[in-house]
Design brief:
Layout: H1 9-13, E1 26-30, E2 33-43, E3 47-55, H2 59-70, E4 83-87, E5 90-96, H3 111-124, H4 144-161, H5 163-166, H6 175-184, E6 192-196, E7 204-206, E8 212-214, E9 220-224, H7 249-260, H8 264-289, H9 295-307
Antiparallel strand pairs: 1-2, 2-3, 3-5, 4-5, 6-9, 7-8
Helix pairs in contact: 3-7, 4-8, 8-9
Length: 312
Amino acid sequence: MAAHNIADLPRLLAGTPWASLAGTAQPVSLQGYQYDDLFRLGDDAGGRFALKLRPLDQPNIADSLRCLAARFDPAGLIQDYLDAFQVDGCWLLVSQWVTGQQPITSRRDSLPLFFSRLAAFNRDNPATGHFTSMYADGHYFASLADLVEHELAGHLKALAASWPELGPDWAAPGVGSRELRAALAALTDGLACLVNEDCNTGNMFLKADGQPLFIDTEWLHTGLNLHQFDHLNLSGFDEPRWYNIGAEAVACATAYFDELRLPRALANEQLRAWECLAVLRRHSSWHWRGQKEQYQLTAQRLRQLLDRPSFI
């Protein structure tokens, strides 16, 4: 996608129902960051709208549009687009401008409600194929097992290549490696469903009526429900970030699995598998960057997760 800025919007919107609003466009900022591909259109009299620009070659956009059209969402948890069209090598995505509170610096008490409703949405939208994730590099798979194995293969290869620094326990035949593989098997016990993978607080709104809403759903696709926990800092391994969920993580995970009515023991094994996957993702990044000084942290974290009695 060619770089566009606010001055390009009259040309991009020409010939669309939104052309008359091009002159009202304003850049959008959140937590001190100004987006160069997100704008607010309109005014109080005629209504306000969000305009997002994305590259045409970004396959997750077409995925999200397909899933939005097919979803069952009577509670209105997932925001839809009002319009979506292609101009000059990019998607132009228009949605209603949402007012309310984002659980970033206030109303953090509402976060478990988001995950409870998300669980209901996942349960009500089962899927049978075309599985992918943000970490699948644009690949699609016929089964959850194939999706999970595709990602794990690379991570376990990086882990095996790091064993001189990690210690023999994490080499392929080592005790730790065997325990890890057994724990990771619970990933495929998760739900195959429509997932909203990018569940960070910047994509959540508590509307004026108190109902939760997920916006910016460009990573809505068919996949594994556990992948939606990427921003839950359950084990405290991640540095605090405004878009992540720390102190409320246990309550959010509990609300999620309670809504699914999954026995606590099974929920904890799925969370163990997810947390191990999150550590492996971080280790693969360190391995790719050659940050060997971090490898012992991987070993410590994996051992902590494997020995932990429960997570919720």
